[in-house]
Design brief:
Radius of gyration: 14 Å
Largest sheet: 6 strands, antiparallel
Distance between the termini: 22 Å
Number of helices: 0
Number of strands: 10
Structural class: mainly beta
Number of domains: 1
Order of helices and strands: EEEEEEEEEE
């Protein structure tokens, strides 16, 4: 998602299916939104093949820290999609946070997250990648 035409006052869900290519997959978010803010919450990787087992740790950030996540992970208390904590990023250069998880090769995964942003213009970008 890059350069949305206007700010979003509410969260919206982004989701997709992915077949695991490795037993060692990494989900990475790259976010930039200066001088405004991008919010991220309720990140989920469900292994549909394995009875919808959750593969991520602390995807809702409800520990109040970035437990299980690496990289730049700025915790916020508002406005979150659900719960008390979420990610709030207003950096003017791209920052990255990532988490590695371990599905079985070939399992069908349902990946989703909720996001919203304030402001608009050329500095608003959210990048999501998954790599084996």
């Amino acid at each position: 998602m890059a350069n949305p035409c206007s700010s979003s006052s509410s969260y919206f869900q982004v989701s997709f299916y992915y077949y695991a290519k490795s037993s060692n997959e990494t989900l990475t978010f790259g976010i930039v939104n200066g001088p405004a803010y991008t919010y991220l919450d309720d990140v989920s990787v469900l292994d549909i093949t394995q009875s919808s087992t959750q593969l991520l740790c602390n995807g809702g950030f409800e520990s109040g820290t970035c437990t299980c996540w690496s990289g730049t992970c700025p915790i916020s208390t508002s406005p979150c999609h659900t719960g008390s904590y979420c990610i709030n990023n207003g950096y003017t250069s791209m920052t990255y946070m990532y988490q590695t998880f371990h599905p079985a090769v070939g399992d069908l995964l349902y990946i989703s997250f909720y996001t919203h942003w304030t402001g608009n213009g050329a500095q608003v970008t959210t990048s999501v990648t998954i790599t084996p």
